[in-house]
């Protein structure tokens, strides 16, 4: 395991980050990108923890759900150790618990369940009717057309090279301070090739599931995660993997926030492929606290 080089593409860097080093049975180590962030991106920890759990299950079992808690900010300057507890291996399902450790303390804990593929009942909600990603401005066009006069924090967010491209159906919430409905639809796509391997595809999907989600809880209040007067952080994260999905095309991430209370915002998301198949469902609660004014 080595830290991704600066010349690697963003997707190459992500795949390297997800390729954990095995230290001992049930014990793995992962690195973070050195990009100047003050804390580790939550999606990275989810993805790495899922990889650690996957490496302890039998071939043919695939993740169908995970439930996680963020307990401390991750330090990007030091490795993260993932300790996997093999809770149960049943005839159909296997359960794993993963604890992520830095500086001798737990920063994150996750339970995940794995299952052999089975046939069964089929139904799903319909995908929202939204414009296709090809009709929307790409990130380069967004930078050139909309970000010239945008606040610095927003410009930095969109100018940073990332392994996932984002195309919002609407960009109104990035620039408006009006109180808007707490919903958004965002097309997301891997920038570069993800190997055709279900465990790795699930880890990349888990990584991107933490992108843009908590933002939705702030739109009803005329603000965003870029507001320097807010303290914003993921508290917990749950994800259900309904159907396998290749990562070589656009996915629609449809999100809403049913509630905010007690300095916490709750958000939900549904990930659909282009044909309208529901790939995964996500739920998250995050801290959205106003900072004390000195």
Topology of this structure?
Layout: H1 10-18, E1 21-24, E2 27-30, H2 42-54, E3 61-70, E4 80-89, E5 93-102, E6 105-116, H3 139-145, H4 152-159, E7 164-168, H5 172-175, E8 183-190, H6 198-208, E9 230-241, E10 251-261, E11 264-273, E12 278-290
Keywords: Hydrolase, Lipid metabolism
Pfam family, one: Acyl_CoA_thio
Domain Acyl-CoA thioesterase 2 C-terminal: 162-287
Structure explained in plain terms:
There is one protein chain. The protein is of the alpha+beta class and 294 residues long. The protein folds into two domains: 1-117, Hotdog Thioesterase (Thiol Ester Dehydrase, Chain A); 134-294, Roll (Thiol Ester Dehydrase, Chain A). The chain is built from six helices and twelve strands. It has helices at residues 10-18, 42-54, 139-145, 152-159, 172-175, 198-208; strands at residues 21-24, 27-30, 61-70, 80-89, 93-102, 105-116, 164-168, 183-190, 230-241, 251-261, 264-273, 278-290. A twelve-stranded antiparallel beta sheet has the order 1-2-4-5-6-3-9-12-11-10-8-7. Strand 4 and strand 5 form a beta hairpin. Helix 2 runs antiparallel to helix 6 (198-208). The longest helix has 13 residues, at 42-54. The termini are far apart. InterPro entries: Acyl-CoA_hotdog, Acyl_CoA_thio, HotDog_dom_sf, TesB_ACOT8-like_N, TesB_C.
């Amino acid at each position: 395991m080595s830290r991704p080089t600066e010349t690697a593409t963003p997707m190459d860097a992500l795949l390297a980050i997800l390729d954990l080093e095995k230290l001992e049975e049930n014990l793995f180590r992962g690195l973070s990108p050195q990009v100047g962030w003050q804390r580790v991106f939550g999606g990275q920890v989810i993805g790495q923890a899922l990889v650690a759990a996957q490496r302890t299950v039998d071939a043919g079992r695939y993740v169908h759900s995970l439930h996680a808690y963020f307990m401390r900010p991750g330090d990007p300057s030091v490795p993260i150790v993932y300790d996997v507890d093999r809770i149960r291996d049943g005839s159909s399902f296997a359960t794993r618990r993963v604890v992520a450790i830095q500086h001798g303390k737990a920063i994150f804990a996750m339970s995940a369940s794995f299952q052999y593929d089975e046939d069964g009942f089929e139904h799903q909600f319909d995908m929202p009717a939204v414009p296709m990603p090809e009709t929307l401005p790409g990130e380069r066009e967004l930078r050139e057309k909309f970000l010239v006069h945008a606040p610095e924090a927003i410009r930095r967010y969109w100018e940073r090279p990332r392994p996932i491209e984002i195309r919002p159906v609407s960009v109104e919430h990035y620039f408006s301070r009006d109180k808007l409905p707490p919903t958004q639809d965002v097309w997301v796509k891997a920038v570069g090739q993800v190997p055709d391997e279900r465990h790795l595809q699930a880890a990349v999907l888990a990584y991107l599931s933490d992108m843009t989600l908590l933002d939705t809880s702030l739109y009803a209040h005329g603000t965003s995660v870029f507001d320097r007067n807010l303290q914003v952080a993921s508290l917990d994260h749950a994800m259900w993997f309904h159907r396998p999905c290749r990562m070589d095309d656009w996915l629609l991430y449809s999100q809403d926030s049913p509630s905010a209370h007690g300095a916490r915002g709750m958000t939900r998301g549904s990930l659909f492929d282009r044909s309208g198949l529901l790939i995964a469902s996500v739920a998250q609660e995050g801290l959205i606290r106003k900072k004390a004014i000195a």
